[in-house]
Amino acid sequence: MKARLLMGATLVVALFSFTAEASMHWVPAPAVKGHGHAGHGGGHGGGNSRHAGETYLLHGGEGAETQLMSPHLAVKALQPEQGRVSVKAMGTGNYHALVAKRSAGELHESAIRYIYMNGKPSGVSPSLLIGHEKSALEIEPAPLAREHWRYYSGTDAVFVIRYRGEPLAGASMSMTTGNGSSAEFTADATGRVTVPLPQDFTYEKPGRAANPPAEFLLTARHGDDGQRFITTFSYDYHINPQHWQSTELGLAMVGGGMLLGGFMTLRKRRRKEKK
Amino acid sequence: MPVWKNLSVIRKVVQLLAFLFLVYGSVFVGFYSADKISGAFPALACAYDAKTADYCVLIPLQHQLGHGVGRAIGAGTFALSMLLPVLTTLATFLLLFVLLNKAFCGWLCPLGFFQEVLGMIGQKLRLNRTESLDEKVVDRIRPAKWLMLGLLVILFPLASGIGFVGHELGDPFCKICPSRILTSLAAGQLNQLYIDTSSTGYMILSIIADTLFGLILVLSLTMRQPFCRICPMLAMHAIFKKIGLVRLVKNYTPRCDKCGLCAKACPMDIREIHTSKEKDILMPDCTLCGRCVEFCPDKGVMAMKYAVIPIKVSDPQYFKERNRAQKQWEGKQKPSRRVKKD
């Protein structure tokens, strides 16, 4: 429980450090007594109970329409209370999309976050949901870090910026992280952007449980025919496990296993010859 | 013998295609779990391989028993409905398993194929191979697969969920599974080959995993399918083998008593296929590779059937050609050093 509260507090500090000036975006809500808490992406819903709902905050989303989209593209309207939405699975498991949209004059904003929910097997691919046009301007993860694979600091993540369903060449995109990093990117001719996730964690203790994830936020902007579009994609990323996992030692241990195998083979052969 | 007639060659081609599909399948079916065939595949296709086309059934089983059932028992909130995910996983597994039975091991498993390829390399390098293990050794090894299934796939994950043991043992089989290292390496990932120093438990499990992988690399060169003999998937298949459509049938004749070529051909050293007088000879250790049928010299004595349809029936002409092809493939074995007897 203490660990959960500590993780929640860390998350709050991390989140609010980059939400002050950011565009509308989703973040997991820190644990509050009596509320469900949001799980993190990757890994079967981040360890949330199968029956518990999850709570998310929509920052800067006053007046936005919010909805949950299922793997089958079924849509359920959400009612935020003070920016908080409680999300429960719509009967199926797998990835769902939290979508918030708002238009005011020539400005059109959207915020998208993918969340894993437990439930009955959906029988359809999350590719359907991720590839589906949820807003005019959209940042599509290509692919989304899922199940036994996470976004890690010091690794590259790939995204495609789409406008009206088509890749947007040369689009500009910015990244901010809960650990205080920021960067600017430009999409290539196919709308792809490769984002090097920064090594901006303070490493103190080994182990994933001892290193809570941080949030990263991608924001893309585009202007067309006097209309302005802003979209955000938010997700969590983790400290790179290379801090406590050594590939060199692993290779050495495989070598040790091979030597042991060689020794066992020789011993077996000698015994056979003695018979 | 034309290769298209040789069952072992056909099986190798199928194994190669299955390996490519299961290791690099995301190229065809996309990156996300529901793109996969089932999420509960009856062979060691690994979820830690970011390019995989499906997940081995053992990973959801461990997670559902640990995160779901075990946690609920620990919290005192267990209800029978908690078993639904486990039952769904088992039902998905069975839907596939019934189609091919234990042939998932002998024809589709990436790790099984890898070990067989190493065995072929060992043959070509003229290494002194042990074609059959001693009966006593085989008998000692056989219970290991049940222990692996019982402890690593069921008990430890449950105990971890309840809180009796650490989180390290939440999915202990995956932590030591050689297929996790093999398939991720094949997919160009080095991230599953490591020693984890974050806790004693993780360190021990990662040491076991890497050592086991190294052992398999070497033992497979001189011994037939070392890991298959202790694989929990083999045990899981053994539980449900009666409902699978692919069957192994023997029509016993007195000539069988003197022959025993089927048992010699068996890569899993199942001597019971030679001694048994039963019609159904699909044994718990069988991987349905079909070598016993190939190397049976009597017409119609051994058969592999799909329900009632014969797929391969033993035949003296085929046996002769197959035997010749095998000798050609193996070439002259390097004579082992002889110890002079006093």
From TrEMBL, chain B:
Transmembrane residue ranges: 12-34, 78-100, 146-165, 202-223
GO-annotated cellular components: plasma membrane
Keywords: 4Fe-4S, Electron transport, Iron, Iron-sulfur, Membrane, Metal-binding, Transmembrane, Transmembrane helix, Transport
Organism in which the protein naturally occurs: Mariprofundus ferrinatatus
Domain of life: Bacteria
Domain 4Fe-4S ferredoxin-type: 246-276, 278-307
The protein, known as: 4Fe-4S binding domain-containing protein
Lineage: Bacteria, Pseudomonadati, Pseudomonadota, Candidatius Mariprofundia, Mariprofundales
InterPro entries: 4Fe4S_Fe-S-bd (IPR017896), 4Fe4S_Fe_S_CS (IPR017900), Electron_Trans/Redox (IPR051684)
Any GO molecular function: metal ion binding
